[in-house]
Design a protein that fits this description.
alpha/beta, Rossmann fold, 2 domains, five-stranded parallel β-sheet, three-stranded mixed β-sheet, 14 helices, elongated
Length: 366
């Protein structure tokens, strides 16, 4: 072999070695920093289609939720199909129902760490030893669905008090068309009609990834980067499949006018008919603590606002944060908008303080 060839092979070896070590250190860097965009997003396969609500949780189901390298929880539903404990239907105990979206369902954490369980424990310590707090939360839903769930379960639980845990996007969800969810071969499908459902299933069948691709995605972070560059990569990154994620254009805006005041009016009528206290507790937002309260005030008329009891617990939350020597942003997941386990604890403790006052004033049996 002449000197010229040896030099070429040597240079090639150096280039290949450089590429290898470059890729190696890139892989190590991705594994160290774990950018949330490279995390698997896994939704629990616990959803069943519901013609009235769009969807709900399957009773006695178990699923897994994982997101952003930080949320990792086994989700279990009770016999009624909620992320909650089982409840004794004894009419003689004081009972509190909670309606709301994902902040109430709290599928991101264990049931025992959800704010509704903290609320129950605290109220029992505060002089209501048999208080029963029922969690009717359902993620991804608006106030219209929360009203429907309340209407359905009032005869079952006969509540003394109902909390609407209102989050800033609950009105936005009301203004959209009804969405269905269901589990299909391990995927959670979200769609508005049968046409969208069919197109999603066709996409999955066409682009479903091989076991080898799945292995590469699960074990090599550089491959996760590459998954953004080819069709079907979304099926590796998440099992939650919406029309937009597979390139299907949709119009989510409701086709008929939505009466937000009317929804809250129905809530107040139910409270009067069934003789329970109705409280609206705004849920804190990560980006703006007052966002949920602002949404209520911007979307409900002054006359309707005068008829509902909105309880701002943000001052109590601030007091508790000072007590625990924590900052406001520590209530939330680092890469998500939801309350983490600590946030659920604080929200439950703050809610208990104000709710006890209402229970005491109403002379509800303990």
């Amino acid at each position: 072999m002449n000197i010229s060839n040896r030099r070429r092979y040597k240079n090639l070896a150096l280039v290949l070695t450089g590429i290898f070590f470059g890729l190696f250190f890139a892989e190590l860097t991705l594994r160290f920093f774990k950018p949330p965009q490279l995390s698997v997003t896994h939704m629990p396969c616990i959803y069943i289609k519901d013609e009235q609500l769009g969807y709900r949780y399957e009773p006695n189901a178990t699923g897994w939720i994982y997101r952003n390298f930080e949320i990792d929880n086994i989700v279990k539903t009770n016999s009624l199909g909620f992320h909650d404990i089982e409840h004794d239907m004894n009419d003689k105990v004081p009972r509190l129902l909670v309606i709301g979206d994902s902040f109430t369902a709290s599928t991101h954490i264990d049931i025992s760490k959800g704010w509704t369980q903290t609320l129950q424990k605290e109220l029992r310590k505060m002089g209501y030893p048999s208080m029963d707090v029922v969690n009717l939360g359902l993620d991804g839903t608006g106030t219209n669905v929360h009203l429907a769930l309340l209407n359905k379960y009032i005869p079952t639980f006969k509540p003394d008090l109902v909390i609407l845990a209102f989050y800033e996007n609950d009105v936005e969800d009301v203004l959209k068309k009804r969405k269905f969810r269901e589990c299909n071969e391990g995927y959670v499908l979200s769609y508005q009609n049968d046409k969208e459902r069919s197109e999603i299933i066709t996409y999955i069948e066409k682009h479903n990834q091989s076991k080898f691709s799945s292995w590469l995605f699960n074990n090599i972070y550089l491959f996760r980067v590459m998954s953004y560059l080819y069709p079907g990569g979304v099926l590796l990154r998440t099992n939650y499949i919406t029309p937009i994620k597979v390139g299907i254009k949709v119009d989510e805006k409701a086709t008929t006018p939505v009466d937000i005041d009317g929804i809250f009016k129905k809530l107040t009528i139910l409270a009067q008919q069934h003789k329970f206290i109705l409280l609206v507790i705004p849920v804190p937002s990560k980006n703006k603590p007052t966002a949920s309260i602002d949404t209520l005030r911007n979307n409900i008329s002054e006359s309707m606002l005068a008829q509902i009891d909105i309880v701002d617990i943000s001052p109590i939350i601030q007091e508790l944060l000072m007590k625990y020597n924590k900052a406001y942003n520590e209530l939330f997941w680092k890469h998500g908008d939801h309350l983490n386990a600590f946030g659920n604890l604080i929200f439950g403790l703050a809610s208990a303080e104000v709710i006890k006052n209402y229970l005491d004033a109403s002379a509800i049996d303990r």
